[in-house]
Amino acid sequence: MTVRVRVRGIYATALTHVLLEAGHDVVQASPPIRRRFEESFDDADHDVAVETTDDRQGVGVTGASSRVASATAELRVAADTLAWPSPTPVGAVFDARVVETRGRGAVCDLGPAEGYLPYDAAEAHVDDGDTLRVQVRTDRPPWCDRRPELGTGLEAGTGLATLDAGRDGVRVDTRDDAAGRELAGMTDLLGVEVPDGWGVRWRHAATAADMETLRGALERAVETAEALDAVRGEPVGGPTRRASPAASTWLWFGRESRFALDDHRRAVTATMPGHHRIKAGSESASAGVDFAEALCSPAGEDEFPFGVVTRQFGPVEGETVAIGHGKPDGRLITLGRGEVVEHDPDGTVAVRRELSGGGSYDALDIPREQGDTALTKFREGRWWYPTVYRSAGGKLKGTYVNVCTPVECFPDVVRYVDLHVDVIKHADGRVERVDDADLDAAVDAGELSDDLAEKARSVATSLEKAL
């Protein structure tokens, strides 16, 4: 049986090699996996998801029961690879009894196990002795001392498409607004009838999928929702499992397993002795291994290991970074600090700032109002970067593209020198090029060379055509 598998985490390269060697299909591959393998990876929906556990000691394998069994058999790479089926797979529905209330949630008896229900994931007040219907949101491996996390709302599907009970409409979990709007608009064209009382939620990966893949993903989510609809209408009883749309198996990798995985990874890319043994120790050790291997990779494989450098030293998601806007006359203007909301190992750092009111946006000629946001996407080494301005309510105000010297994303600041000429796109779609005269003046003043000015003009011309 060929299984389509989505693989994530520190074991991804090795397990991708294992699965491909066994004849399975790896889909939705991450950028590093696409670079390392001489394969063409599909963006199809997955039958099974393989994800590294939070403590890096093993992986969880989730999907349809028969496909989980098939994938698990291949992933047992050594004698000390141990496997345990989960009694509480993600998506399973239980009738539960509250056995203990705590500060932020309640412990629930599910029958085969206990789970934890955060109060903010419950649709009504929860008290000791209550019986209620819950669904597993996050499962836990058996060696973990934390209980599976629960919610009282029902979700159907864990692939590209998920249906949410009690909602309507279409949502897309992506920061790419344009791709999200396009996918939301395409959903009605798929010809799949969504049951009443269920809303559609797409994963970010769905923005890259073709129509047939999207249709199949939504059809599978609808099938699951229809099965759960029968459970929704039944009275709540004692602790027991009522539905289990998917199965999960937890794999724990021992020392021999980790070294066997090293061999699989080494068949694909440079791998130091003890690669997985070291990475399993801590997040900082994992980043250190990536850093060392990137520096020792053959020349040309990676001109600059942006992903591992920023992972080790920053900036990464959740951190804040300043924008160091250099001027051709030598001055440095700091355009404030923002939160890193996206970190792509390929070189992109997205920074979001909340703005205060007053004044207007240069060249866009629109007022700057309290609560406006600016989302700036920097890419290491690129000669330009875009900033998208929106109102507090999310309405697009315009896009400003700065032409600059190649961007560098340092741990605490993104640096470049502004080259004056810029390209803007107004909210109504008009594209305008500005500040050519300032660029010419900087050349006349000896602040910029003719070659650098010509490069700036060339970049601006390309941007005008692209926008």
Concise summary:
With 467 residues, the chain is an alpha+beta fold. The chain has helices spanning 12-21, 31-36, 65-75, 177-186, 211-232, 255-266, 275-279, 283-296, 306-313, 436-444, 450-466; strands at residues 4-8, 25-26, 48-52, 58-63, 81-85, 93-101, 105-109, 114-118, 131-138, 149-151, 155-156, 161-165, 170-172, 198-202, 240-243, 247-253, 320-326, 332-344, 348-354, 373-379, 384-390, 396-404, 408-409, 413-426, 431-434. It has a seven-stranded mixed beta barrel with strand order 17-18-19-20-21-22-24.
If you average the pLDDT, what whole number results? 91
- Separation of the first and last Cα atoms: 46 Å
Please describe the biggest sheet, giving its number of strands, its sense, and whether it closes into a barrel: 7 strands, mixed, barrel
Q: What structural class results from the helix and strand content?
A: alpha+beta
Q: Which CATH architecture of the largest domain is right?
A: Beta Barrel
- Number of separate helices: 11
What number of structural domains do the residues give? 4
Using only CA atoms, what is the Rg?
A: 26 Å
The neighbouring-strand order within the major sheet is: 17-18-19-20-21-22-24
Percent of residues in helices comes to 25-40%
**How is the CATH topology of the largest domain named?**
FomD barrel-like fold
